[in-house]
Design brief:
Chain lengths: 584, 315
């Protein structure tokens, strides 16, 4: 049995080697702390760089680590002082003056200065470091020209290598000279905007406008000697020993793909109001497991159960730890509203009457109670009602469910309807993405359109990336869509339908609508602004570039007797530092 | 044997280069945009162009050359999905985890599979034989998310519900802290290969047991069992060995489903998500690692072949 011996040896040695290898990086010891806020998320945090983040998951942590100029109160959803007091605004809504608190501190004790904000926003406007939300900084005066200027510089540098360092010095001076960000002293920040924009304070309270610790963050930048491009040492936002934060928490541990731990920032100006002193975020990939872990008491809070199956059952069970809360987002079908399709053929939905009829023939109530079974609030408008204080669209402007009215609309426009002759309506195609439970609603709605309006609708399921490509290229007739607002202001929803907005997949182009958006943007008085936005939404809904279906909800699991002072709102402004966790 | 080793070592970089070219082309052709937000929101065109320039994504040739240059020094680039995390770090953290799970699963599969196969061959057409072949069929047919979730619910969940105070009985709820975390996922991952190995062993043995030299051995006085262990097994083992090579490489680079179900920080999810999100850096890194592992394991299998059956010439 000479061949058995080496096999046996292998059988014993290999696992020993692999065991040490596989468990060689254990998680640091964490003493059990029943007052820590422990929760689980299904996917890893992508980045903690406030100017690079786009995902909700990431902002949840960034909002805990960094404090922008202003913050959103989770209960009133109003802007309140953050690192600065509410700004002084010029009469024409183009100049904002922020005064920083004198007790605002970084986690290393340094005072928070206006230069920290300026450097952070500078990073967003550099093509070398630009990221998904950089566009949201371009309303600052001189920002877009600076971005283009630097782009041209980079092209020059690519032709004549070796000029990198000089070009960088020039870039810094050029930014100071041309971009509307002044720091007359350490505690004052004056922002000048390109156009009057009354909602700039909302942006100032949004995570991407957070500051970074300028001395260390700028030291982490390197100029490439050949290309002249600037890169940032990514380790800065990963290493707890390097990352300096000014919010309620600081980063203690980030075991990528496993666990993240935040501890209270001792220098935070409101450190004594913290409800908890430690946040532990686990990564639990499978939903069955995350639910079991929650039930076993190992996590206090589960922010969102993706699985519709478990979620629907939980909503129906009478449990006091299930919180099904509205979310500031809408699920809708996009109607291609251009005169022609991307291949040049005529677009059957170019006629608003047909779009209006389709939008009025969706039985939303049955959909949310019997098909999705999540009881989402039905959507007859685009902006979720009640999500923005002071903004209300009158009920007569909402899109109703009225098949009879829909048929009448079609008849009036000369189309054939069941039992009446007229111009035939071509077969329409509805595309949606796989893997999100979109098939049920799609089939139900297509069937209903056939039954009530006599319109043939074929459905096609495509992979998510393919759906996005089709939408971006206008290569669709009807496509599944969705949109979440970033902050409690109507512009975050309604700007989507501006004729030149990059995410306006419907191709809706209405100069009158754009004009109303501009007026809303410039109106300093919130009530006046809201009236303009309401008119805009009314106009858009009447033209029906979309058929709103339901407003999103978020499902949270936590025991309100144990996890206290947790105000859930539609905007994911969770204010984690206020939450108090009491041991059993 | 040395000629075989030399030949394989020369082939290794050539095969990897071919794999790189094919994967690179496919990764470039796949729809998707790693720089797009998860909800599909697009940045402005100038910003998007600037982001692509940061990673050389607008110039495939420059990308390829920069990538190869860096890869030779061990730098596989940044991950596009997780800005700030290096691909080498991600793979460096995840590969040992998947490897440990994979090797344990295969070891378990080998143990269970050969035992079942041998028992079946010793007592052909007995209830034991039929039973183990039946379980083998179940193992091959059930998808891994079913076996995984079942094991999780029964092994971890049920124990907690029925005996909440006997904490020593509670298997961990997923995660990766110590050897106890290996039990359920290794079982789930190893069940299907165990089934294949059981069938291969059983059928191979049945074949060999009926051959002439076995008849001679038994005529010379060896019992059935002695004949099996002393002569038949090592010859019937060859098909299992062929199967083991690719099976181990595959198990070691992570099973997406098992790692999802048991929350194991392995390579499987990165493999799938890299394709889904068109994270070209991560994708290339993982594919090259997988290719290298596969080549290494196939070489090991070939060497083992010669060892098990001296008649096989490797040259």
């Amino acid at each position: 049995m000479r061949w058995a011996l080496p096999l046996i040896l292998l059988a014993l040695l290999l696992p020993a080697a692999v065991f040490n290898f596989g468990f060689g990086r254990p998680l640091p010891d964490l003493p059990p702390d029943k007052t820590a806020l422990t929760f689980a998320v299904p996917s890893p945090v992508k980045t903690l760089d406030p100017q690079r983040a786009t995902a909700l998951n990431d902002f949840r942590i960034i909002d805990a680590l960094f404090e922008p100029l202003l913050t959103v109160d989770p209960e009133t959803l109003q802007l309140v002082p953050g690192a600065a007091s509410l700004p002084g605004v010029s009469d024409d809504a183009t100049t904002y003056t922020f005064t920083l608190r004198d007790d605002a501190r970084w986690s290393n004790g340094d005072p928070v200065t206006s230069h920290d904000f300026k450097h952070a926003w500078f990073r967003a406007l550099l093509p070398d470091l630009a990221a998904g939300y950089s566009g949201k900084f371009m309303l600052i005066k001189g920002a877009k020209p600076f971005f283009d200027w630097r782009n041209d510089k980079l092209k020059e540098l690519a032709q004549t290598p070796g000029q990198g360092k000089q070009a960088w010095q020039k870039t810094l001076t050029h930014f100071d000279a041309t971009v509307g960000l002044q720091t007359p002293d350490d505690r004052t920040l004056i922002v000048t905007l390109e156009k009057p924009t009354a909602y700039f304070p909302d942006l100032a309270g949004f995570g991407i406008y957070s500051p970074v610790h300028a001395p260390t963050a700028s030291a982490a930048l390197t100029v490439d000697p050949t290309t002249g491009r600037v890169t940032m040492d990514p380790n800065y936002f990963i290493d707890p020993d390097r990352l300096i934060s000014n919010g309620p928490y600081q980063l203690t541990e980030w075991s990528f793909g496993r666990r993240m731990v935040l501890d209270a920032n001792p220098h935070y100006h409101a450190a004594d109001t913290l409800g908890n002193h430690r946040i532990v975020q686990h990564l639990i990939r499978g939903e069955a497991l995350s639910f079991m872990t929650y039930e076993s008491g190992e996590v206090d809070w589960l922010p969102g159960l993706p699985s519709a199956a478990i979620a629907a059952e939980l909503i129906r069970a009478n449990r006091n730890d299930v919180h099904n809360v509205p979310s500031a987002g809408t699920y809708f079908y996009i109607f291609n509203s251009r005169p022609t399709l991307s291949d040049g053929s005529p677009n059957p939905l170019a006629d608003p009457a047909l779009r209006q009829a389709l939008a009025r023939c969706i039985d939303r109530q049955t959909l949310v109670s019997k098909v999705t079974r999540m009881d989402q609030p039905t959507a007859n408008t685009f902006v979720p009602p009640g999500s923005i204080a002071g903004y209300t669209l009158p009920p007569e402007d909402a899109i109703p469910y009225d098949p009879a009215a829909a048929r009448q609309l079609l008849r009036d426009a000369g189309y054939a309807t069941p039992g009446h002759a007229g111009n035939p309506i071509p077969t329409l195609k509805l595309v949606y993405n796989t893997g999100g439970g979109h098939e049920g609603p799609a089939l139900a709605i297509a069937r209903h359109w056939k039954d009530e309006l006599g319109i043939d609708v074929t459905t096609e399921a495509v992979e998510w990336n393919r759906l996005i490509d089709l939408r971006n290229n206008g290569n669709f007739v009807i496509a599944r869509g969705g949109w979440f607002g970033d902050y409690p202001h109507p512009s975050t929803f309604l700007e989507l339908f501006r004729s030149d907005d990059g995410n306006n997949d419907s191709g809706y182009a209405n100069p009158d609508y754009d004009a109303l958006l501009d007026q809303g943007r410039a109106a300093l008085d919130p009530d006046e602004a809201n009236r303009f936005y309401e008119q805009a939404e009314r106009m858009m809904l009447a033209d029906a570039p979309i058929a709103p279906i339901y407003h999103y909800t978020q499902l949270h699991l936590f025991d309100p007797n144990r996890v206290q002072n947790f105000t859930l709102n539609a905007w994911n402004k969770s204010a984690l530092h206020r939450i108090r966790v009491t041991p059993e | 044997m040395t000629t075989l080793l030399a030949r394989r070592l020369i082939q290794l970089p050539l095969i990897l280069a071919l794999v790189f070219v094919i994967t690179f082309t496919l990764a470039w052709a796949v729809p998707g945009d790693p720089l797009r937000a998860t909800d599909g929101r697009k940045p402005q065109p100038e910003v998007e162009a600037a982001m692509r320039a940061q990673y050389n994504l607008d110039d495939p040739v420059a990308f390829a050359f920069n990538y190869l240059g860096d890869a030779l020094t061990g730098d596989f680039g940044p991950s596009l999905q997780y800005p700030g995390q290096r691909v080498a770090d991600i793979i460096g953290d995840a590969l040992p985890v998947s490897a440990t799970l994979g090797v344990t699963a295969i070891a378990l599969a080998l143990l269970l599979g050969t035992t079942a196969g041998v028992l079946g061959a010793l007592k052909p057409r007995s209830p034991l034989d039929a039973g183990s072949l039946g379980v083998a069929l179940l193992g091959i047919s059930l998808p891994s998310f079913v076996t995984g979730t079942l094991l999780l619910a029964l092994g971890a969940g049920l124990a907690r519900q029925l005996a909440p105070d006997l904490t020593w009985l509670h298997l961990p709820l997923g995660g990766w802290t110590g050897p106890a975390n290996l039990i359920l996922p290794a079982l789930a991952l190893g069940l299907a290969p165990a089934a294949y190995i059981a069938r291969l062993t059983r059928l191979g043995l049945a074949d060999v047991m009926a051959s002439d030299y076995l008849r001679t051995a038994r005529a010379k006085g060896l019992s059935n069992r002695q004949a099996l262990f002393r002569h038949a097994l090592k010859n019937a083992f060859l098909p299992v060995l062929s199967f083991l090579g690719p099976a181990t490489a595959s198990a070691m680079t992570g099973s997406f489903v098992i790692e999802q179900v048991f929350n194991i920080p392995g390579l499987g999810e990165h493999f799938v998500n890299a394709v889904r999100n068109k994270d070209q850096f991560l994708l290339l890194g993982i594919v090259l690692v997988y290719a290298a592992l596969l080549i290494a394991f196939n070489l090991l299998v070939d060497l083992a072949y010669a060892f098990v059956d001296p008649r096989i010439s490797l040259d």
